[in-house]
Amino acid sequence: MTARRKSGFESVRERLNILFKGFEPTIFDRTKLVACETVEESLHDSTVIVDAISMPSAGSVVDDRSLHASTFHWVTYVDVRKQALSNSLIPEFSSYTFDNLDIGYRLSSPASEALRE
To answer: For residue 80, what pLDDT is reported?
Structure first.
């Protein structure tokens, strides 16, 4: 997991580790959460990417420089009405996960466009 800003903490990693302390302890029985400084670092060895980045000002954040084609067979990308995934990577995924298909059809994210097609 990563965050865009450190928000008054010494680092993004410190901010997230403090956030993790507020989570229900049983979540750590089911998943491994790792605090990362950057998106690139957070993608390393990940099996699920939950795109919760609100409209990145610099354009796509997750692209072929940060997520390589060799990882697509074991990565699940979950779009949460966000815009971080590069349009060029959309066709590379074999499936998409939406928590609400009705909303998914109406959104303007690249994965929603693929859903409509």
So the answer is: 63
Collapse the DSSP code of 43 into the 3-class scheme (helix H, G, I; strand E, B; otherwise coil) and give the result: helix
Instruction: Tell me the per-residue pLDDT of 72-90, one tens digit each, with 9 for 90 and over.
Output: 667 777 766 566 777 777 7
Q: Helix, strand or coil for residue 66?
A: coil
Give pLDDT, residue 21. Answer: 94
Helix, strand, coil share (%) of the chain residues, nearest 5:
35, 10, 55
From CA 68, how far away is CA 80, in angstroms rounded? 21
CA distances from 20 to 7, 37, 44, 87 (A): 15, 15, 19, 31
| pTM (2 d.p.) | 0.62
Separation of alpha carbons 51 and 48, rounded Å: 10
For residue 111, list its beta bridge partners. Answer: none
